[in-house]
Design a protein that fits this description.
The complex is a heterodimer.
Chain A (H helix, E strand, L loop, with lengths): L1 E12 L3 E13 L3 E6 L6 H8 L7 E6 L2 E2 L4 H6 L1 E5 L10 H11 L4 H14 L15 H13 L5 E5 L7 H16 L3 E6 L2 H7 L2 E6 L2 E7 H8 L4 H18 L1
Parallel strand pairs in A: 3-8, 3-9, 6-7, 7-8
Antiparallel strand pairs in A: 1-2, 1-4, 4-5, 9-10
Helix pairs in contact in A: 3-5
Chain B lengths: L4 H16 L2 H28 L5 E6 L29 E5 L13 H28 L4 H6 L2 H12 L10 H21 L4 E4 L4 H13 L3 H6 L6 E3 L5 H28 L20 H38 L3 H5 L5 H42 L11 H28 L3 H23 L11 H7 L3 H12 L10 H24 L1 H4 L8 H10 L7 H26 L7 H28 L3 H4 L7 H24 L9 H10 L6 H29 L4 H14 L4 H21 L3 H26 L8 H6 E2 L6 E2 L1 H19 L1 H4 L22
Parallel strand pairs in B: 1-2, 1-3
Antiparallel strand pairs in B: 3-4, 5-6
Classes of the chains: A alpha/beta, B mainly alpha.
Chain lengths: 251, 838
């Protein structure tokens, strides 16, 4: 369960002064739902998700994850979410097993519970054959699987994926999507940020189109297409962005 | 800062394993120390064994003139002329005496001829030179010395008493000619293959014999006037080979001369001891332990510091900057471990490696050193016996002091490495740290810097990072039996632990800063940075700006020391006091107030808030005015009782104090210079800009402490540093509680004025002591020993009580009346945990 209301974030940039990366974003994600965050590069997706994962502090606004306010109880929030992005790398000098075990322990799992859970995750992601390979020797696909395993090892109710498939080949990307589908079916609240339309169409139950720190539209795919009279996600996306940029210019 | 040790342990465990899997770290920490020293040691031994020195070439002209016993035999100086027989083999002598067979080894007949020809050419030049020298001798005592005994003495006396004859017209030309000739000789000598050339004068042997005969017949008149012939030894001091060969030849000739002298004395039937009226006997009482201790005392502290830093350097870069570079930083940040746990875990890893590196280096170095020294001792019999390792007590202290030292470096490296985006950037940041550390180590190793129980500077050295532990260690290793220096152990440990704590706190702050963790790779642009600095102002200065303001003041003071002392030169004695006062006022305004005011205007959006320009409450002002009167006696007595701890006042400070009690100056001038100016300038700077900056993060307590320490440090003189730091605490408290600059100014003005009055009263008492001072009742309050007004028991008790009450009021009462616009304080948040279990 994720509730985000009026979230803003400002950065101080040497060139442009105070820059607003997020300008009042609100949405909600329910259990068993994949919520898509669709936007071009620099739209504010990563900033928003970093705030949800407590790595950045919001300038204003409120975010409740599993009943905890992100700003006040970051540790509690962190232990209830799984976060994966392109920036969350894996350690070169650790094997797959050690890496997942390390994070399992940091999340408070111990003993039989940990081994059992790890076995489950390794089976689910088909990772057993490379569990003793060091991070530096892994292929991109293996690394991505380790990342996912690290994200879900503590079985968190909330999962956040920030462009998890960017830079992956089709086969690996398909595996990632498959894993996320399984997680949704297990009743997790999932946020999925991307700029790839087809993934949104395949995976997301509800979508928010985000551009320049603003949410332009929010709803299920069908709702959005009907509201804005577009036939596909792609048409809808470009129509929204064009319209926003036009109004911004005229204003 | 909440820390779960389970998480710290997990992180530590992972980091250590990670480092141990890294070949670079393993190499630096384990392989290098274990291999390096034995390798170096063996290499050095091999060098000395296989690369024996090439023999140097000495040419002696007119060798036939040399009297017996023979100085040269078979192309070498016989071994009897050297302390160590080996030296003989390091010199080859070529003479122009008849036998052509006596050739130098590895030199063809051709080259040998060339050498002799070169030597002869140089002899000609030298003879020309000597003629010139004889001509110039009446005006130059160095030249006079070159002439033979009697003549030389006469000329020297004449030069010393200024009775030199008039210089000839061509004097300058002769000097030029001499210099030209000197240059030519130098070039000729350098171009030849000669290392040392000895020129024996014609008739030298005969001359010597004549002297001996005259001595035997005791014909003193003739003896005194007989001109002496002096052999000449030519060398090139700029050429090391020549210089070394020269020293060896000198050794042989000196011993040979000694022998000639002995024979001469025998002939003259004089005792052998005649040339040595003092006949000094020196005894070396150092035993082997001490020689070793002094060696370890020099090497170990330096090695310890450098290795503790090196050992922290690479792991710190890897666990902080490396983690960012490899993209695992964010992975770690989203796990439930708190930032403090992460930092402590990483810090302990770095600390572990720093200590391991240091210990391994010391052990490896110690054993190699011991082994090598004992080996060389066996070979050459140089008097260095087996070198015992430092005593267990010294080693114990070595380890104890290593802990805070390594902790300091680890935390510092970790902070800097966290700031860096990549390994490469990390190395750039840490290199200056290395340089500074090297400088401080060199400073501590200089023989004049040491910890002594009576030396006043010792306590200040103790308070310095790096220098304190280095000096303590030096003292303990050099003289293990010396328990006196152990008084410094506590201050050194305390200050070291304090510095480590500050460095660690800084590392945690770095880890909490979004700017640092998510710094994008942007180009640094000075113009943009300045524009941002001036555009995005906050009402109060930042912590860093306050620190920079202080450093700027210190730097300006440092720069102007020379300028100020320069301007005092040539000032008439009666004007010194006045001139000094002018400078003090200029210094206060230009170096202390101006930087703070300028920075406040440029860098903050509210000068009024930053400098606390606001009316205080009447009560606050009253307390600020009353407090100095009760603090003054306490401060005077405290300083007097601590007098022996501090080093002597420098002359400039003494002169300033003298000016304070100078009765010839009008009182308002003295008060203006020593009370009003500092009250205004220093308050604006330290309770204005610096305190506001240090407190802008909400930590009022730390802000007061830091502002008072900086306030102390700006006073430079140790006594003043101590005094001002204590007063700074009170002033800081007043400023924070009243949120106004005015009470501080009033306090400062009163306090300094009282010091001026105290000085003046003391001075007037030293002239004529009033009778009432000796009355019983009065002497319970004040007395006047040694011409200084001193406060006694009753005054002090009263003042201490009043001070306590007023400061308590400031701490408690003042708080409730605090202005809501004052420095924000972190309020404990109302914690409500509702609906968390969904």
């Amino acid at each position: 369960m994720i509730e985000v209301s009026e979230l803003t974030k400002c950065f101080s940039d040497p060139k442009r002064g105070i820059v607003s990366a997020l300008g009042g974003v609100s949405f909600e994600v329910k259990p068993g739902e994949v919520f898509g965050l669709l936007g071009p590069n620099g739209a504010g997706k990563t900033t928003c998700l970093r705030i949800l994962s407590t790595v950045l502090r919001p300038t204003s606004g409120r975010t409740i994850i599993s009943g905890y306010d992100v700003a006040n109880y970051p540790e509690q929030v962190r232990s209830r979410i799984g976060f994966m992005s392109n920036n969350t790398g894996i350690y070169d000098r650790m094997t797959a097993w050690e890496m997942v075990e390390y994070f399992g322990r940091l999340y408070g799992l111990t003993g039989d519970k940990l081994t059992h859970r790890m076995d489950e995750v390794f089976t689910m992601l088909q990772m057993h054959e490379f569990k003793d390979i060091l991070g530096s020797k892994m292929s991109t696909g293996m690394r991505q699987k380790v990342s996912i395993a690290r994200t879900i090892v503590h079985d968190p109710p909330v999962l956040i994926f920030d462009e998890p498939t960017s830079g992956l080949d089709v086969l690996v990307a398909r595996n990632v999507i498959k894993a996320i589908t399984q997680l949704r079916d297990a009743g997790k609240s999932i946020i999925y940020s991307t700029h790839i339309m087809s993934e949104v169409e395949r995976l997301c139950d509800r979508v928010a189109v985000i551009h320049k720190g603003q949410i332009l539209a929010i709803g299920t795919r069908q709702e959005l297409c009907e509201q804005h009279g577009s036939e596909s996600m792609e048409d809808l996306f470009f129509a929204l962005i064009d319209r926003y940029d036009e109004t911004a210019v005229t204003v | 800062m909440e820390v779960t040790w389970k998480n710290v342990w997990l992180i530590l465990h992972r980091e250590v394993r990670d480092q141990l899997r890294d070949r670079r770290t393993l190499f630096m920490v384990l392989v290098l120390p274990i291999m390096l020293y034995p390798g170096l040691g063996i290499g050095m031994l091999q060098m000395t064994m296989y690369f024996t020195e090439q023999p140097r070439q000495v040419v002696i002209l007119n060798a036939g003139e040399l009297p017996d016993p023979p100085l040269v035999k078979d192309g070498v100086f016989p071994t009897r002329w050297f302390r160590s027989a080996e030296t003989s083999s390091k010199l080859r002598v070529l003479t122009d005496a008849s036998d052509d067979e006596a050739r130098l080894p590895n030199v063809t007949a051709e080259e040998q001829k060339q050498l002799l020809a070169d030597a002869a050419r140089i002899r000609e030049l030298i003879e020309q030179r000597n003629k010139l020298v004889a001509q110039l001798a009446p005006w130059n005592s160095d030249f006079a010395d070159e002439l033979s005994g009697v003549q030389s003495a006469k000329l020297r006396n004449a030069i010393q008493s200024g009775e030199t004859p008039e210089q000839p017209d061509n004097y300058e030309a002769l000097v030029d000619e001499y210099l030209e000739l000197k240059k030519t000789i130098g070039e000729q000598f350098a171009n030849s293959k000669l290392q040392v050339l000895m020129i024996v004068p014609e008739g030298f042997g005969k001359n010597l014999k004549t002297v001996n005969d005259l001595l035997v017949s005791r014909d003193n008149d003739k003896l005194m006037t007989l001109p002496l012939l002096r052999p000449i030894l030519v060398r090139n001091r700029a050429d090391e080979k020549s210089d070394v060969a020269y020293r060896r030849v000198r050794e042989a000739i000196d011993k040979w001369e000694r022998q000639l002298l002995k024979e001469r004395l025998e002939l003259a039937q004089l005792p052998e001891t005649v040339p040595d009226p003092v006949s000094l006997l020196s005894i070396d009482v150092a035993n082997e332990d001490e020689i070793a201790a002094s060696m370890w005392g020099k090497i170990f502290p330096a090695l310890l510091i450098i290795m503790a830093l090196t050992g922290a350097f690479y792991p710190a870069i890897d666990v902080a900057a490396g983690e960012k570079e490899r993209g695992t930083m964010e992975t770690l940040l989203i796990c439930p471990a708190t930032r403090s746990e992460i930092v402590v875990g990483k810090f302990l890893t770095v600390l572990l490696f720093s200590m391991a590196t240091t210990m391994l280096n010391l052990i490896s170095m110690g054993f190699t050193g011991k082994y090598i020294v004992s080996m060389t001792a066996g070979v050459s019999g140089s008097g260095m016996g087996a070198v015992p390792l430092p005593t267990p007590l010294a080693l114990f202290w070595l380890v104890i002091l290593l802990i805070p030292l390594a902790a300091f470096f680890s935390a510092l490296c970790l902070s800097l490495a966290t700031f860096a985006r990549s390994n490469k950037e990390g190395q750039y940041y840490l290199t200056p740290l290395f340089m500074i550390t090297m400088g401080m180590t060199m400073f501590s190793m200089s023989p004049s810097i040491e910890l002594t129980a009576t030396g006043g500077a010792s306590l200040f050295y103790c308070a310095m990072p790096i220098v304190g532990p280095a000096l303590l260690l030096k003292a303990l290793l050099m003289n293990p039996g010396n328990t006196e220096v152990l008084v410094f152990a506590l201050p050194v440990l305390m200050s070291s632990i304090g510095y480590s704590a500050i460095a660690l706190w800084w590392a945690v702050e770095q880890f909490k800063s979004e700017d640092v963790l998510f710094r994008e790779a942007e180009q640094f642009d000075l113009k943009l940075w300045l524009r941002q600095l001036l555009r995005d102002k906050a009402p109060l200065p930042t912590f860093a700006q306050a620190a920079i303001c202080f450093m700027l003041m210190m730097f300006l003071q440092f720069l102007t020391i020379k300028l100020l002392t320069g301007s005092m030169v040539g000032v008439a004695a009666e004007d010194i006091g006045r001139k000094m006062m002018e400078l003090a006022v200029v210094q206060q305004m230009a170096l202390i107030a101006a930087p703070a005011i300028l920075m406040a205007i440029l860098l903050t959006s509210s000068v009024r808030k930053t400098l606390r320009l606001k009316m205080p409450s009447g009560r606050m002002l009253a307390v600020a005015i009353a407090l100095p009167f009760v603090l003054h006696p306490l401060a005077i007595e405290l300083l007097a009782s601590l007098q022996s701890f501090f080093p002597q006042l420098p002359d400039s400070a003494k002169a300033a104090f003298a000016a304070m009690s100078d009765e010839t100056l009008p009182l308002y001038v003295v008060i203006g210079v020593f009370a009003l100016t500092p009250a205004l300038c220093e308050e604006v700077a330290f309770r204005g800009f610096i305190l506001s900056g240090f407190g802008s993060g909400g930590r009022t307590g730390i802000a007061i402490i830091l502002s008072s320490i900086t306030f102390g440090l700006i006073h430079m003189v140790p006594q003043q540093v101590f005094n001002a730091s204590l007063l700074g605490m009170v002033l800081g408290l007043i400023a924070v509680r009243s949120n106004s600059l005015l009470p501080g100014v009033a306090f400062h003005l009163c306090f300094n004025s009282l010091a001026v009055f105290h000085g003046q009263v003391s001075a007037s008492f030293s002239e004529s002591k009033p009778d009432w001072l000796d009355k019983d009742l009065i002497s319970w309050f004040v007395s006047c020993p040694n011409d200084t007004l001193r406060y006694n028991f009753l005054t002090l008790m009263t003042c201490a009580g009043a001070t306590f009450l007023m400061i308590r009021w400031l701490i408690n009462e003042g708080e409730s009346r605090e202005d809501p616009n004052a420095i924000p304080r972190i309020q404990p948040e109302a914690v409500t945990l509702t609906g968390s279990a969904t």
